[in-house]
């Protein structure tokens, strides 16, 4: 059976992307033979994760909201999300860059080109809140997100810092934070959890130390969640 096609969206260093790639490329990796990353898309040109992808021959594309709006006066964030989603779907064939260019040059809101859709979309440290317009274009293709908190605990940005601060103030329930991978829905970080792992906070631990332990968990459960979705 051919590997399932996965498109990964990133914004930064791509350490979680690297965890996915290692699980695919290593002979004993959990995703070896099951998945292939066909496209990596970033909303930041300087994201090192793009280099990680290019180093192993994976097509990359960049679509920055600020740059796109600068070239498309009067267009909204929702318009950008629709363009991004179409590029993601084209990523099933590694052709996101072509899709972005086509949409930029077209005078029509619809694309004349159709692509084989990916089997899974992963938001791995993608620092952009996607809108309902993004999800509508995906038309049912599974989309998952990695979030460094337990379900319903610290939605949105700076979740690790907020957990660290709450623990220091004695306000963190059971002294535990965690990491989850969840389905992406319109409500931020409220989709159904796929994999959840608790992380116990430690007295006297710095924010950087907690972040390091959280990231180790992230690298594991992003692979576990990908495997779970692709084998269900």
Number of domains: 2
* Largest sheet features: 7 strands, mixed
C-alpha-based Rg, rounded: 18 Å
Low-confidence stretches: none
CATH class of the largest domain: Alpha Beta
Q: What is the tally of helical segments?
A: 8
The averaged pLDDT comes out at 94
Residues in helix, %: 25-40%
Task: Itemize the secondary structure elements and their pairings.
Elements: E1 4-10, H1 15-25, E2 35-42, H2 48-55, E3 60-62, H3 65-71, H4 77-90, H5 96-105, E4 120-123, H6 132-138, E5 143-147, H7 159-168, E6 176-183, E7 193-200, H8 207-230
Helix pairs in contact: 1-8, 4-5, 4-6
GO molecular function: phosphoribosylglycinamide formyltransferase activity
Pathway: Purine metabolism; IMP biosynthesis via de novo pathway; N(2)-formyl-N(1)-(5-phospho-D-ribosyl)glycinamide from N(1)-(5-phospho-D-ribosyl)glycinamide (10-formyl THF route): step 1/1
Pfam families: Formyl_trans_N
Overall description:
Its EC number is 2.1.2.2. This is phosphoribosylglycinamide formyltransferase 1. One of its GO terms (cellular component) is cytoplasm. It is a single chain. The chain is of the alpha/beta class. The protein has 2 domains: 1-141, Formyl transferase, N-terminal domain (Rossmann fold); 148-183 and 197-232, no CATH class. 39% of the residues lie in helices and 19% in strands. It has 8 helices and 7 strands, in the order βαβαβαααβαβαββα. It has helices at residues 15-25, 48-55, 65-71, 77-90, 96-105, 132-138, 159-168, 207-230; strands at residues 4-10, 35-42, 60-62, 120-123, 143-147, 176-183, 193-200. A 7-stranded mixed β-sheet has the order 3-2-1-4-5-6-7. β2 (35-42), α2 and β3 (60-62) form a beta-alpha-beta unit. The mean pLDDT is 94.
